[in-house]
Amino acid sequence: MAKTLFENIWDAHVVAQEPESPAVLYIDLHLIHEVTSPQAFDGLRKRGIKVRRPDRTFGTLDHGIPTTDRSLPIVDELAARQITIMERNCAENGIQLYGIKTGADKQGIVHVIGPELGLTQPGMTIVCGDSHTATHGAFGSLGFGIGTSEVEMVLSTQCLLQRKPKTCNVRIDGALKKGVTAKDIILGIIAKYGVGGGTGLVYEYTGTAIRTMTMEERMTVCNMSIEGGSRAGLIAPDETTFNFVAGREFAPKGAEWDKKLAWWKTLPSDAEAQYDVTYSLDADALEPMITYGTNPGMGMNITERIPDPDKIADLSQRKALEKALSYMGLQPNQQLLGHKVDMVFIGSCTNSRISDLREAAALLKGRKVAEGVRVLVVPGSTPIKKQAEAEGLDQIFRAAGAEWREAGCSACIAMNGDQLEPGQYGISTSNRNFEGRQGKGGRTFLASPLTAAASAVTGVVTDARVLTN
Amino acid sequence: MSKFPTISSKVIALNAENVDTDQIIPARFLKVTDKLGLGEQLFCDWRYNSDGSPKPDFMLNKPEMKGRQVLLAGDNFGCGSSREHAPWALVGYGFRAVISTSFADIFKNNSLKNGLLPVIIDKETHAQLFSLIEEDPNTSLSIDLAAQTLTLPDGRAVNFPIDSFSKTCLLNGVDEIGYVLGMHEQIEAYEAAHA
User: Quick check: A26 and B194 CB within 8 A?
Assistant: First the structure.
């Protein structure tokens, strides 16, 4: 029977399947971080057991870690305590931790370092106590976020109880115009199908626009699958994928590589494979996107005007938009172009890779950040930071007046002091614009690194094509 | 986990769609290393003023709402982050069930593992419930997990779906991790075959 990419991976990982019960699914790679794992390790201690497969478990410090000088003590006592506990849990269980005291040269955001180290490979099942684990689907792996109870189950058994989700073909054909990016594609999908459009589904992104993308662009698209409600978003592996993985630290080598490669090539969906649902987006028609509201589905073409609640028939949707605009301090029919911004954040597991930094630096080169605007540039990992410095990107950012930081989640989740103040407006390359997400009372516009960098220069929401044409 | 009881309770209604887990429990409270005490911070930024005083208009702050075990919420409740702190906070406050037309997948899984029952009902009944509670805020509902029914004050029983495995686990207080730990032979066999 013809099968999809998702079904091929799923079927290869079923350990047991009792009737009427969820499948027991084997997990190839478990990534952990300091915020969602302490209670899980406590659970193991209570049971008197150790981590079953420390060799398949990798830790990093990213969510709460400061992005300032790491040789200084951490001021936030609670964050410092979480980090100490993470260090102890990894040491006691023989888990490799990329943190401050160990593995610091490879530390970074969990979804950035997995691919960077070659841990993320096609055909794998990958989980992490973080919803943006969907990122790893860019490699043709099944990656999804889990809660702390499930983290405890994977640490204990290397398995998860899972009900098989339905599949959705998200077809994106065409070629992006200059100045339109992978970020705009995923913001476009979420604006079109809503934040609940993917509930119960696993997305597979297909089409010519996906095929011509780099791995970094594919990761940006898959990363925000969860913002559309889909726990996982997959892209079939191809030569682009294999070339990215080859030679990385944990990638298979020699005969093992040949064996794995042969299997990876069998993973893509069969031409006749059936999906439960089909969505589509026309890449040719896409413009740079920006969000105006308080969920990632409240997005529009950057030149458009904010929708008018009075023109929305559905009562609850109208109320949601009114509430969002009230929180954002915005008016119906208003343009966002020209709206002031107080902070610009270039970073997060969505857009903090070297290509994102190069794009932003190319725009900022020889230009200055507008007066009164704070610009935070936070690389996704320590190796990316070093690479950017080797290319002189840090000098471009600093010369423009931006802050160049250590790697971490930073202002995306605003747990470490990198944040908006109440009432401030931020344009952010991250993934969530929920109320208070980037700091209590803060207001977020989600956009691409190009749009963020252009807005940094002008101090107002700006279509980057105006500066680059 | 304790066995899930039959619930009979008045309801707290929160008429908003797409309530994300950042609203249920803001990220600044994720620095805890245990599961306790998060009920105080449930819906923190909707519930308290910046000086920490309760906002009198917010439902959870009304004295008569105290002790209510059922939350009636809008569509796609619990979207966003995978933080299990969201159900920990809801359970910490005293909720045992949330009623909506749909739940985000990760939140639903996390809830089931913490004795918080996601009750999915159709759009029409959902709208009727909101109207009923608007007319009479002291409307009481009962939820029988074994029968998979939500019973309205007029005696009408509405069925809700739940997979049989989760239902059994909740009703009997089954330790899911213990269940999978018991399958170690099958796990070893899988590992041996895929080494």
Answer: yes
User: Residues B48, B40: contact at Cβ < 8 Å?
Assistant: no
**CATH of segment(s) A5-161:** 3.30.499.10
Q: What is the tens place of the pLDDT at every residue in A190-225?
A: 999 999 999 999 999 999 999 999 999 999 999 999
Distance (Å, rounded) from C-alpha A142 to C-alpha A235?
A: 10
User: Residue B52 region, left (φ>0) first, then alpha (ψ -120 to 50), else beta?
Assistant: left
Assign A1 a pLDDT band (cuts: 50, 70, 90). Answer: confident
Residues B110-136: pLDDT tens digits? Answer: 999 999 999 999 999 999 999 999 999
Give the span between the Cα atoms of A209 and A51, in whole angstroms.
41
Could you tell me which CATH number the domain at A299-468 has?
A: 3.30.499.10
Q: Is the ipTM of this complex over 0.95?
A: yes
- For the stretch A81-121, pLDDT in tens is 999 999 999 999 999 999 999 999 999 999 999 999 999 99
Size of interface A-B (CB pairs under 8 A): 175
For B:39-68, CB contacts with A below 8 A are 45, 50
Decide if A145 and B82 are in contact by the 8 Å CB cutoff: yes
What residue in B sits closest to A78 (Cα-Cα)? B31
A80 near B CB under 8 A? no
| Binary contact (B113, A149; C-beta < 8 A) | yes
| Alpha carbons A161 and A163: distance in angstroms, whole number | 7
How many Å lie between the alpha carbon of A328 and the closest alpha carbon of chain B? 15
Q: How confident is the model over B69-110, as pLDDT tens digits?
A: 999 999 999 999 999 999 999 999 999 999 999 999 999 999
CATH 3.40.1060.10 assigned to domain A166-238+261-285? The reply is yes
- Burial (0-12, 13-18, 19+ Cβ within 10 Å), B155: exposed
Chain B CB contacts of A63 below 8 Å: 30
Extents of the domains making up chain A: 5-161, 166-238+261-285, 299-468
CB distance from A84 to chain B under 8 Å? no
Residues of chain B in contact with residue A144, where contact means CB-CB under 8 angstroms, are 106
CATH number of B7-193: 3.20.19.10
Encode B34-69: b = buried (16+ Cβ within 10 Å), e = exposed.
ebeebbebbbbbbebeeeeeeeeeebbbeeeeeebb
Which of A24, A47, A110, A131 is most worth mutating to test chain B (most B CB atoms within 10 A of its CB)?
A131
Write down the residue that tokens 């410090």 correspond to.
A61
